[in-house]
Amino acid sequence: MGSHPINLAIRFILELIALVSAGLWGWVNGDGWLRFTYAISIPVTMAVIWGTFNVPGDPSRSGKAPIVIPGIIRLVIELLFFGFAVWFLNDIGYIILSYLLGMVVVVHYFVSYDRIRWLLSR
């Protein structure tokens, strides 16, 4: 179920929302030129981490792993990625949106139980 096209589309949308949340947080919390720096550098850093550290053959990704890591580490990275997105939204006052994002992430991972099991076996 974790590799189902609909679930992968939802995951992609969640990834985009997480990056936008990081940029918005950086924009709100920065002053002057730091506003631009934070709004760009935080989501770019998150995207680089997301795309670089992978488990080879991950069925929900391209299967490529620029830097190979164990499945449990990948799962921790993903949970931190989405957890920070929820926190970013909450911190800048989008409380309901942060709860909604958190609930959708939990449901997504619940539906992706087969992928979680696969990650934990690597």
Textual characterization of the structure:
- The protein is mainly alpha-helical and 122 residues long.
- The protein has one domain.
- Helices cover 75% and strands 3% of the residues.
- Strands 1-2 form a two-stranded parallel sheet.
- Helix 1 runs antiparallel to helix 2, helix 1 crosses helix 3 and helix 1 packs antiparallel against helix 4.
- The longest helix has 25 residues.
- It is globular, with a radius of gyration of 15 Å.
- The two termini are 18 Å apart.
- InterPro entries: DUF2568.
- It comes from Mangrovivirga halotolerans.
Topology:
Blueprint lengths: L4 H25 L3 H20 E2 L12 E2 L2 H21 L3 H17 L1 H8 L2
Parallel strand pairs: 1-2
Keywords:
122 residues; mainly alpha; YrdB family protein; membrane; DUF2568
Low-confidence runs: none
Report the average pLDDT across residues.
92
User: Helix coverage percent of residues?
Assistant: over 70%
Shape: globular
Number of strands: 2
Q: Which structural class do you get from the secondary structure elements?
A: mainly alpha
How far apart lie the N and C ends? 18 Å
Strand arrangement, largest sheet?
1-2
- Approximately how much beta-strand content do the residues carry? under 5%
Q: Please tell me the total number of domains.
A: 1
Major sheet attributes: 2 strands, parallel
How many distinct helices? 5
Following the backbone from N to C, one meets helices and strands in this order, namely HHEEHHH
Radius of gyration: 15 Å
Transmembrane segments: 12-30, 36-55, 67-88, 94-113
Organism: Mangrovivirga halotolerans
Keywords: Membrane, Transmembrane, Transmembrane helix
InterPro entries: DUF2568
